[in-house]
Amino acid sequence: SNWFETPQGRYILSWEKSKVDQLVTDQFGFNAFQFGMPQCAFLDQNRIPLRQIAGEGEGVDLICNFQEIPLATNSVDLVVMPHILEFHKEPHQILREVERILIADGQLIITGFNPISLWGLRKKMHLKKDVFPFNGNYISVLRLRDWLKLLSFEVDRGHFGCYIPPFKDEQWIRRWHFMEAAGDRWWSVAGGVYLIRAI
Questions:
Q1: Measured between alpha carbons, how far is 177 from 172 in angstroms, rounded to an integer?
Q2: What is the DSSP code (8-state) at residue 65?
Q3: Mean pLDDT, residues 137-143 taken together
Q4: What H or E segment, with its residue span, contains residue 113?
Q5: Separation CA 123–CA 127 (nearest Å)
Q6: What stretch of H or E contains 161?
Q7: pTM of the full predicted structure?
Q8: 72 φ, ψ to 5°?
Q9: Average pLDDT over residues 58-79
Q10: What region, left, alpha or beta, does residue 80 occupy, with left being phi > 0 and alpha being psi -120 to 50 degrees?
Q11: In this structure, are residues 136 and 114 in contact, taking their beta carbons and an 8 Å threshold?
Q12: Across 30-158, where does the E strand assignment appear?
């Protein structure tokens, strides 16, 4: 959680929050869950009456292990998972559990770091492998789409963003902001992070 207070973290979080807000605003139902990252309320623009944060640490409404989610089958309308899969040992099991708890037309929104990006390149070259966020197992969008299709999800094409190199200094992030528009136009699948929505 400390990393998301750094210039790098704020840059990533700002893009993800704006994209998630656009997707969840008109999503209706009875139960919505955000898995992890309690420091950022990804569901605050949603109209579902029961919005909860689940996770393994402090600041959550439901403390749980994502590999065995203590929720009834077919009971949740919306799940938002920011950066869960690439930092857990059993991403397949987590997706199976999410598929189990979602209703028939339930929606799943996933954000993750893109291995085919400047952030992914930095991860491969990084000497300190234990430093967040370069200590995760980045999952490509194509692989994630395959996993979701095996679980009978219909998957959007996804959104990519954060094309600026992983600079630590806010001044450099501002200087390179022109890459956002250029990235969307010229190398759209090479954003540092992605967002996928599945039904």
A1: 9
A2: B
A3: 92
A4: strand 102-113
A5: 9
A6: strand 159-161
A7: 0.90
A8: -65, 150
A9: 93
A10: beta
A11: no
A12: 31-35, 50-55, 62-63, 76-82, 102-113
